[in-house]
Amino acid sequence: xxxxxxxxxxxxxxxxxxxxxxxxxxxGVLDGYDPHMNLVLKNAEELIKGEVVRKLVxxxxxxxxxxxxxx
Length: 71
Fold this sequence. Notes:
Layout: H1 4-10, E1 15-20, E2 24-33, E3 39-48, E4 51-61, E5 66-70
Antiparallel strand pairs: 1-2, 1-5, 2-3, 3-4
């Protein structure tokens, strides 16, 4: 079984989907992360209830808001 940070490391420079608290999601290319699961996404889309509300060149997602990350 793989550890979560090892899975994230394999997802660097690949498209990921991040679900956050409050029915919010981000889809983008994983550019980096830290041990607290703070994420840096490039070319991301912010979605609320499945609807794209904005596009972002670079965004940082705080790890304490993350419910799951899907590579």
